[in-house]
Amino acid sequence: MATSIAVKIFTFSVLLAITTALTDDELAQAACAAIAPSGFVSAIRKPCNRISPTCNTLCRDAVCSMRKLYGNQGSTSGTCFQTFHIYGRRNTLKNSDMGKAHMAIYKIGNGCGNTNCGPNFCCCKA
Q: How crowded is residue 122: how many other Cβ atoms within 10 Å of its Cβ?
């Protein structure tokens, strides 16, 4: 009986980790990699404030840290190719919940030059 309860707790913990463990950074990285034409890609956080830099600027300024991750491979200039807004609010769904949204990501067309709070992640290529 104790083994059965332990297995159920373990299974629940694994399922919980799988469904809730991805951070916004990891989701953005996956989204950027999925739509990238090819090459080295990183998702860069974009701050939301009154003097927010554009993703074009953030990608350009992040190229050194990006290349460090890639073993100094890729271009020496960072360029933005897409932006996203990943909403932090998530719905908790049961296995039986069908036809309901768990989370939302907004793909912003031509958002690399935005200074506003629309995009909160930049897709950058090196």
A: 29
